[in-house]
Design brief:
The complex is a heterodimer of chains A (about 300) and B (about 130). Chain A is α/β, with parallel strands linked by helices. In chain A, about 40% of the residues lie in helices and about 10% in strands. Chain B is globular and about 55 Å long.
Chain lengths: ~300, ~130
Amino acid sequence: MKIPYFPGCTLKTTAKNFELSAIASAKKIGIEFIELDRWNCCGVVSSLTSDDLMKHLAPVRNFLRVQEMNKQGIVENENRMITLCSMCYNTLSLSNQRMKENADDLQKINDFMHREDDDYKGDVDVVHFLSILEEYGFDKLAQKVTKPLKDLKVASYYGCTLLRPKSVGIDDTEDPKILEKFVESLGAEAVDWDAKSRCCGSYHTVNNIDIVYRLVQGIIDDAKKNGADAIITSCPLCAFNLDVRQSEIKEKNSDYQTIPIYYFTQLMGIALEIDKIELGLEFNKIDPEIILTKLNLL
Amino acid sequence: MAKKIKLNDKNTEFYEKIVELSGEQVALCDQCGTCSGGCPFVEEMDITPSQIMRLVMLGQKSVMDSKTMWICASCFTCTVRCPRELDVSKVSEALRQTKLRTAIDEISIEDISKEEAKKLPTIAVVGNFRKFTG
């Protein structure tokens, strides 16, 4: 299956390990990501005021590239656009929703993009890779696993943008299960915990780090309390806060027990026996190899 | 003795402005406190999200002096739980925009050290500026 793929800026910079591991893992199960030609910023974060139409221009312009890929035959009748970064998924989905629900707004945006070859027709669907995996089937994924992640206890961290607001959430807002099903399909043990959808502090990491330290510590403590060996995420900003900010907490307090943070696709790659170089493990801040080596998974 | 608040045209004007910008009928708020109870940031706030809703409902411009709207990170926890289905995140955004549109930014790019700027993810920086600058 070939599917148009929107990477977003962070996957080309601080989250290379996410992109590398996702593309390699998807390929292994027969899903090929075709990167959009001339993609631009998703417009992060989604604009929430009623009169801010201009801020939806950037996200919507990307949908034209998906239309073009279909027109040029690069993909066949594939109106879905796959995303990895949860924040891109959220921003793009909310803008798309506004275009689909409001013909006047769509017309205005199209008028702004008059130098483009075509208008956006409103028929692209933004999907997250996890939803594609769910559609592929977690049972089928389990059959592809050649190295089950036996005895690895994984806490699935959803954060905010995969689940909220409800209109774009990929699963139940209060009791999501998709990541846990994914974890079990890899042969690992899914840990039940409270902090799975609690905000990590998000962009406050730029100018108000203390808030992030407090929230990150709460999330990590809850994962440890429930016996997790590892936390997985699909958001490069959550990953940065949980991984880099957690390592800074450790620098200040040497007794602090850290817990490694992985992109969900990195664990998928391990279970599919993809070489660790292709999974970008070297870009993870808190040593991701100790627990994997201990359990003979590397 | 209970403090009396007399509403005037200016209160109504401010209330209507926030309703228009947010698209939310703030007066529907029951003051049940669910938003404040579930907010992961409430410890950092000077007044709670439900107090914000009440002040907006009464058209009290003093709400703009609170830090709460800047602490709110649009995590939508309140939004998905509100029994009146009000999007409290949108009300925070409307308040932020009301300030930012007077050309007063909440942060300056110089506040970020070069060392930090190098390691921060792009979405953190762009997201931050989208929320704190006009």
